[in-house]
């Protein structure tokens, strides 16, 4: 435990360190990546090569996930956790340390957890029910078996009869299980009509998805504590035998245990947790018409499965990792459990972006081959909410899973969705993938089937260090201090468990718009209103306290009020706690209605009686049509149906950066004041004064794109701090506020662009510094243009970097600075002025301040633009070159379709519009 305790001590010490500069960069502030080991076919030479590339570019964390191998490379595959594999892990850890990289690893290969040591008895389990109708009053001899031929064959020798129950329809229930011998029921049935229901505990027979060599086998039963414990034993043995250091953290991917709705022992656990026996209510449990009793029993079943998953899997996994000095990082989505409590049961909750969000940012390239982002901010917030309310310092993200099709995603397309994750609370991001690829592998190297390929074999890697620096700067602030969201919002999990169809509900990101549309709209409405929120579960409400005018969760995070969003079902204990908090001084708001009833079937009469007694303490209101505030003990209860009015009634001002300017933001607190991450994820630019919802006296601005910083222009209005903000569409900024103004800081430069600009539309030359296939020579293009239009046979099929050069004759115009506006860049560019490195532009707006390098008279501007690999790969497909050399799923297209890219038209490359120099004058203070 020593390593674990030291790790978390350092995390919390680091989170409180302050500076009037960019915070000190910890490894966790640098971007991380899932490191795909194809076939685990790694070797020391190429591990060193790859790790040096990664470290030099700026990656700070790598999570090893072994998956399927490369065709024809079987002789180099290494079995997972074998002595050779552990030797490679030990070497990797040493080399990673040399390059400033921390090593994590998946607690398995592919996903979900499973492998060859998982016996059929401890594999993922499913319930199979069979029903029979008989007339009693006679001896019954009946075959009790699975009747579906296909399922019967699959389960032969595997499925076991767990219960055979008989029901007379009048409330009488008999357990006939002991009367079944070798599949035959022999029973003297009492008179009357009887329904018999048999429960077979079968197996899903799901195998590990995308398994690596040595990792193939059944998916384990995540609900079975013995199966989980036995699964981790193989890691104990491998690490003990090899004496390899345990990784910093273990990872678990999204819960994709399909159809596993049961486990041996579930009926016993259900009786212990819910207070009645589920098998005595199989007819109601299986009633697909879902009357009230059926829904209540189903809700109890779902709650039981949720608790068992948390207790038997995520909590046990985390305790096991802590025992070895490691932490856990987990994606709870896709599981049937309460997402808040599941995420909170691990060290680092991780959300997932899946698709590309269209923010309508000016100048941002659109691509026809994209998929919409399933993870809007309401979905992303489950992980960060759990981290915030439980006091966990990090929220992670699986970042950029399928933005566009392969070889077509630019850094500029990545930035807006990265910013979306930041404003949702992510502060320890991981790219979805960096495949290990040997240096000698032919291009495009070893690849993973899903985008985005964030690795040295991708042309975007050339300018990726600038993107990595941006992420590092943002996360250095976002890891500093503590969360400072306005409200807690109750997650109405019992409404979901009660109302959703089917048996087991998996809360995956692709279906949340169907499962929780009203809750999603609620969160979006609150955020659009200029507030920020964290979700809270019943369990965390029970441990929340009122202190010094605010609600304080068990993790020590503070909130101004708690909002209950139209929840119909709520345990009496939860409602009683809310009332108690209000009496102590808290503000609790009920929107649209008070909770109407208790959930579940267990002790329903007693629970309803307790619920009614609690409800009697609530302020009486005939209608929620208008917003009403009630003094309640030392606190307040607010009711109403309009979220804006209800939240306004809490006395919490909305942030003008959202309500007035439409900016996305997240706010954190620190010992000296507060800090905001602000992103202009919209079409409109912003230039104006914004009142901040903090009681501080001064502010500094930090540009995470360039590293610039300075004291902001501020003023006080009605006792509140106002800050002047200037943001172009697509830009972002960090605002740090102070209770006491820092000394010795230079002023932030606020610029006014002059109406006059210099168009650099003639005299350009073009030459390639790198091109595959090769393009030699220099081209007089005169006007900036896509290099796909030049007269060369390889121009439309190459991947590379081209240098655009022009001579600038500077006019005699006074200006404090000059902005170089490159317009439409495909896809990123490095700029030099008179031989000086002026910076890298990789996201819209493609602009740089270059005045300090310009001189009177003639100046040389060089712009090295790098394109995407799409044109090159399309040409390879047209030529029939076989680069798809990977096993299992190999390389699928967007939406998991098979096919190639031979039909794709050339994508523009290079400079695609007029380039301008814009004179800027700075405000004189």
TrEMBL record:
The keyword Transmembrane helix does not apply. Residues 1-19 form the signal peptide. One of its GO terms (molecular function) is hydrolase activity. The keyword Transit peptide does not apply. It comes from the Bacteria. Keywords: Hydrolase, Signal. NCBIfam families: rhamnoside_JR (NF045579). This is Glycosyl hydrolase family 2.
